Amino acid sequence: MGIYRRILSVLKNDIVIGDKKFEFIAFSSCQLQENSVWMFASMNELSADSIREWMGDFRNIRNVAKFAARLGQSFGSSIETLTVNSYEIEVIPDVEIEGEDGTKYVFSDGIGKISVEFARIVAIDCNLKDYSFCLPNSVCRL
């Protein structure tokens, strides 16, 4: 059995280690780069399905990559650095376009802006030497 088939089999059919059966839950984008996923061995009333249900209702997301990304956000390795008060946040509407078939496309989902000064403060708080993670016009992934 090739490696692809083996991995697919584990994701679809779970994996048994000792007396525990581990079910696939989700993966984060970092985990994709590290070839890893989150799996869980059910216990009592807690299962992989109940964990995914607790994470939120993602049924309206039809794009597989976006669906996986939303699940994976619960398992991300982001580090909280600074608190931003609600009055310091400006909500900018997403760029949305409706296709000829009526499908709605969102081009700015997950995009955020940060001021150069706030980026500097975050960099200092994270012990980074610079804050070049920001793109032109101070747009970066938050």
Task: Please outline the helices and strands.
Layout: H1 3-13, E1 15-17, E2 20-26, H2 29-34, E3 38-41, H3 48-55, H4 64-73, E4 96-98, E5 104-106, E6 111-113, H5 116-125, E7 139-141
Antiparallel strand pairs: 1-2, 2-3, 4-5, 6-7
Domain RDRP core: 3-129
Enzyme class: transferase
Catalytic activity: RNA(n) + a ribonucleoside 5'-triphosphate = RNA(n+1) + diphosphate
Kindly describe this structure.
By secondary structure, the chain is α+β, with helices and mostly antiparallel strands. The protein has two domains: 3-73, no CATH class; 86-141, no CATH class. Helix content is 32%, strand content 18%. The protein has helices spanning 3-13, 29-34, 48-55, 64-73, 116-125, and strands spanning 15-17, 20-26, 38-41, 96-98, 104-106, 111-113, 139-141. Strands 1-2-3 form a three-stranded antiparallel sheet. A two-stranded antiparallel sheet has the order 4-5. Strand 1 and strand 2 form a beta hairpin. It is extended and about 55 Å long. The termini are far apart. Residues 134-142 have low confidence and may be disordered. GO terms for molecular function: RNA binding; RNA-directed RNA polymerase activity. Belongs to the RdRP family. It catalyses: RNA(n) + a ribonucleoside 5'-triphosphate = RNA(n+1) + diphosphate. Probably involved in the RNA silencing pathway and required for the generation of small interfering RNAs (siRNAs).
